[in-house]
C-alpha cells in the first residue's frame, strides 16, 4: 500500500538547510492502522504531508497504491489527493461559513458529482459519524468532538483508500478522543481503510496495530502492538 524509500526532506532556511527527514524507509500494508509517535519536531507531520502528496521529498521515493508520487505533476498530485487520501487534522480545518453538510459535500462537488448523489452520500456520512440532526449546523455551533467527526466525514467522502490523521484527538477531551479513535478503528476494521495517525498520546497510539517512532527525522522504533489488545 505504502512504500517510502530513502525519503529525505530538507528545508532551505536562512541559516542553511534543515533536514526534517533523513533517508527514512517505511512500508505499510493495505488495511493496517499505524500510529506515528515521536518528539515535537521529529518529522511526523512532514512525513504525513509527503504521504499525502501535499509536499514532495527532497530525495527518495514514495509509492502509494501503486502510484509513485514523485512521478506525478502538480495536477496529478491534486487528483491523487482528492481521490485516494482523506486528511484529518488537529484543528479540523472546516470552513466556518459552510454548514456541516456543505463542508462534507465539498470534495464531491469539486469532482462534479451529481447533486442527488452528493445528497445521498452526505446523508450516509452524517449517519456514519453519528451527527444526525446537525447537517444544517455551522462548525461554530458544534463541540470539538463533533467538529472532528465532520472532518472525518469529509475525509471519507471520496471513499479514500488511505486516511492520514495528524493528531486527530489532540484538541479533544478524553471522551471525545475515545470516540474519534473508535470511529477510526471501525473504519479501518470494517471498511478496510488504511489509517496513518500521528499522535503524542501513548493511549491513542495503542488503538493502532503498529507504532512507528520517529526521532530527528529517522525511524528509531517500529513495533507491532500486542495481538488481542482490542
Ligand atoms: N516549511 C518548513 N520550513 C522549514 N522547516 C520546517 C518546515 N516544516 C517543518 N520544518 C521543520 O522540520 C522539523 C519537523 O517538523 P514536523 O512538523 O514534521 O514535526 P512534528 O514531528 O510533526 O512535530 P510536532 O509534534 O510538534 O507537530 C521541525 O524542526 C520543523 O521546524
Ligand atoms: Mg506535527
From TrEMBL:
UniProt keyword Nucleotide-binding present: yes
InterPro entries: AAA+_ATPase, ABC_transporter-like_ATP-bd, ABC_transporter-like_CS, ABC_transpr_LolD-like, MacB-like_ATP-bd, P-loop_NTPase
Pfam families found in the cross-reference section: ABC_tran
GO CC terms in record: membrane protein complex; plasma membrane
Alphabetical UniProt keywords: ATP-binding, Nucleotide-binding, Transport
Name this polypeptide is given: ABC transporter ATP-binding protein
Origin species: Paenibacillus antri
Domain ABC transporter: 2-227
One term of GO molecular function: transmembrane transporter activity
Amino acid at each position: 500500500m505504502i512504500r517510502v524509500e530513502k525519503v529525505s526532506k530538507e528545508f532551505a532556511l536562512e541559516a542553511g538547510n534543515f533536514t526534517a527527514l533523513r533517508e527514512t524507509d517505511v512500508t505499510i500494508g493495505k488495511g493496517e492502522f499505524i500510529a506515528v509517535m515521536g518528539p515535537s519536531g521529529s518529522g511526523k507531520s512532514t512525513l504525513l504531508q509527503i504521504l499525502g502528496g501535499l509536499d514532495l521529498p527532497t530525495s527518495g521515493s514514495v509509492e502509494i497504491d501503486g502510484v509513485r508520487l514523485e512521478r506525478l505533476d502538480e495536477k496529478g498530485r491534486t487528483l491523487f489527493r482528492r481521490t485516494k487520501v482523506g486528511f484529518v487534522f488537529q484543528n479540523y480545518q472546516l470552513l466556518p461559513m459552510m454548514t456541516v453538510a456543505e463542508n462534507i459535500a465539498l470534495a464531491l462537488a469539486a469532482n462534479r458529482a451529481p447533486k442527488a448523489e452528493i445528497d445521498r452520500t452526505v446523508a450516509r456520512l452524517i449517519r456514519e459519524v453519528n451527527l444526525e440532526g446537525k447537517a444544517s449546523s455551522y462548525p461554530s455551533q458544534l463541540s470539538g468532538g463533533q467538529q472532528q467527526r465532520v472532518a472525518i466525514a469529509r475525509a471519507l467522502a471520496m471513499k479514500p483508500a488511505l486516511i492520514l490523521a495528524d493528531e486527530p484527538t489532540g484538541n479533544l477531551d478524553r471522551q471525545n478522543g475515545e470516540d474519534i479513535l473508535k470511529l477510526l478503528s471501525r473504519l479501518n476494521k470494517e471498511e478496510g481503510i488504511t489509517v496513518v495517525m500521528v499522535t503524542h498520546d501513548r493511549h491513542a497510539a495503542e488503538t493502532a496495530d503498529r507504532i512507528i517512532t520517529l526521532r530527528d527525522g529517522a525511524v528509531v522504533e517500529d513495533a507491532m502492538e500486542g495481538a488481542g489488545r482490542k
